[in-house]
Amino acid sequence: MSKSMYDIIKKQNGEHFAKAIRCYDNGIFDIPNLDRIVKYAGRDAEPVMKYLISLKNIEITRQSKHHEPLTLLAQAGYTAYVADTLEKQNAIARYFAPNEQLCTFKDKDRFQRYYIINAVRHDADKLRRDDFTHPEREDAYGTSVISIQVLKEGGFISIKNRYNHTVESCDNTFNSNPDNIIMGLSDAIQNYFNVDFVTTHCDLPRGYRLVGDQICKYNQEINNVYVGENFYIADGIIHDINGQNKIMLGGGLIFDIPSKTVHNIARPFYNWNCIDNIFRNKALQQIKDKQTGVRTLTADGVPVMRINAGQMTYINLADTPSVLLTDMNKLCGELDLSKAFEVDLENINTENITRIKFNPMVRSVQIKQTALPRDSYNFSNANTLILNNADFSNATGFKTKRDAGHVVISNVKFPHLDFDFSQVEILGLANCDLRGVKSIKFNPNGYRINLRGAKLPAQKFNLEHVDDLILDNTDTSLVHGMNINPNRVTGITPANALRLIEQYKQR
Hints:
Blueprint: H1 3-13, H2 15-25, H3 34-37, H4 49-54, H5 69-75, E1 78-82, H6 86-89, H7 110-113, E2 114-121, E3 145-151, E4 157-160, H8 185-193, E5 208-211, E6 214-217, E7 220-222, E8 225-227, E9 231-234, E10 237-240, E11 246-250, E12 253-256, E13 261-264, H9 273-279, E14 284-288, E15 295-299, E16 302-308, E17 311-315, E18 322-326, E19 333-337, E20 342-346, E21 353-358, E22 364-368, E23 376-379, E24 384-388, E25 397-400, E26 406-410, E27 418-421, E28 426-430, E29 439-442, E30 448-450, E31 460-463, E32 468-470, E33 481-484, E34 489-490, H10 494-506
Parallel strand pairs: 18-20, 19-21, 20-22, 22-24, 23-25, 24-26, 26-28, 27-29, 28-30, 30-32, 31-33, 32-34
Antiparallel strand pairs: 1-2, 2-3, 3-4, 5-6, 7-8, 8-9, 9-10, 11-12, 12-13, 14-15, 15-16, 16-17
């Protein structure tokens, strides 16, 4: 054991980290550049111990004869191609379930920064996602469609699978070692693209990422950006913000202390004025608890933020007229939005949020990928209401504006309540399960009502005068009848249309 390396690790990662290595296998301290390897690994060594042990003897199998990577993949049962255009990059998107789409598909420039090989196994079309109720990263479904991505500058490789973030370490399929697909593939890829990359023979646990030879403990992955306590990873490059008068807030947000402004490295085009305004023309003070490391930011002496390990646990938005919050994992207590007339919440973990206090006069509400705490929700003044993959199943009340101009609701879990959309001209309820609602009213003279993929409750509906009624894959098995104009309906057979009309007349 190198005592000096122990001391370095102790100072850098903490005594607990250094002692854990020493107790488990002190030979780990002999690994060259260990301090660099674990610099961003956090303060707990146990989750990465097996990986550290594997570093004592890492080997990539070299081949005396270089093979073509596409030929080897064909031998492994895959039809593969080099994705050197955006169209080719996203050509495999059709194989992925709606909520398991790769972030790659949203990145228009990825094929320009990465060498990409997309591979589809010969049985991919025969495998049904619903048959795999307990997904494993390397099971038949997960590995039936893969994307091998190598940074063109070298030093980074990722193998992504069909489950995406449904399984742990989804970007590390086959341990990101092409040889685990078929022997010789690592050498073939390196030779074909003339690029070097690091492969590992041990899996890193969830929440860790390998960049070159460095282990990085991250809090979140947002749009292919990995966000840690005092660093972030973009395009395989680690950006260290420690000691730069900047604070990681979570959700990709970085707070610049001198300018008192915020920017988001994962969502750069979003407007974050709601946070900037908290500190505008106010004195900023930073208070750090020496024991817990928790930071408190105050504006004119009023606590407005608390940050723990690079993630906000509290934010004071009580006086903010327009609120945008995304990708917050650690917020606790009450989230006060009572003065906001515009609210946009996306991918908020509400597990420890006791209440979200909305302004009853809020004019615009967008909520995506968020489960709302148990409470009554009043959006009766909101002319714009957009809900996508939101969970309101715990709501004790839910009011919307009867004549709202823009209501788009999709993949939302509804509570057992009454819903009145009787004056909404344009209404979307795609893929919503409405079977549990007490009642629901639609506008009989609406311009467009989209019920694509929705499951309707057991009641009658008079929609004869709706100009554009979409019933594509709509479950009407419980419906007592529906008065419709077959000439203005899409997604339903004439026979089913007549059946619904006849049921309506009989009841």
